[in-house]
Write a structure and sequence with these properties.
Helix 7 packs across helix 8, helix 8 packs across helix 9 and helix 11 crosses helix 12. The protein is 41% helix and 19% strand. The longest helix is centred in the middle third of the chain and has 21 residues. The strands form 2 sheets. The chain has a 7-stranded mixed beta sheet with strand order 10-11-1-12-3-6-13. A 6-stranded mixed beta sheet has the order 5-4-7-2-8-9, with no helix packed on it. The mean pLDDT is 89. The chain is α+β, with helices and mostly antiparallel strands and 313 residues long. Strand 4 and strand 5 form a beta hairpin.
Length: 313
Amino acid sequence: MDVLDDLLAGTRARGGVFNLTILDPPWGLHIVDEAPLALATLVRGSAWIIRAGQAPVRMEERDVAVLSGPEPYVVADQPDTEPNLRIHPFGICEPLPGAPIDYSARLGVRTYGARPDGEAMVVSGTYQLEGDVSRRLLAALPSVLVVPAADVAGPVMDMVLGEIQRDEPGQQSVLDRWLDLALITTLRAWFARPESHAPGWYQAQSDPVVGLALRLLHEEPAHPWSVVELADRTGVSRASLARRFTGLVGEAPMAYLTGWRIALAADLLRETTDTVESIARKVGYANAFALSVAFKRVRGTSPTAHRRSSTAA
């Protein structure tokens, strides 16, 4: 697996909330669903995405937007259009003052709007992310990104309109898997664009030495790696690997490995009932004490305290 594979494997839709909203100008959606990650595409029409602290971002028909962070935002036909619908957690639609009285009417399964043939059709799906591996991916994304339709796999986006309006056995799983596939294709296209300022770990994957080193660390995080062995496995000197890895990724190989191991351990502590001793060995530490020392140094808390706070949350 490469780094993106690993991060996406930890970012899976489970019970994602999906909406198809059909509107006529002037229209605006005020999104306050607090989702840490959302994906949206326009089946018809064009729009602007407005979020505090940055310039409005234009979105054309069939473009795909990814929004990270729970902060509210507006999707509207024009940057200065006042929202007439508010989207709350769980996809609940609230008409705002001045909106047509039927703007929150349900037109079908997961579908809202005033009339079925409205000028704009917005499809959205949201993730509820909790893990540390997922947060490593979120940290690499801007608050708002838009990928042009030409760069995103067309068939993936074409299938959503039929699926989102169905209500058949297993439909939630179908939509969750669609959301995963749409996110993967969109992020891959985004990171390939010059303006994405892709994180060091993504750009480094194309380097024959550092890319191999990253794959080795991700495939075998529990292996007792050293810079010497990693350099030997990648066919360069220790000094060359350390210099090249740090220059491309932004941190030294062993520092990167520690961060990855701690992220894996944090998710195992939250998601399983495995003992700290067992988790320590799974992620590359000799025993619970060694993991505790590293965990507290990186996270400022002990594995046990992290598990307790995650369970309480």
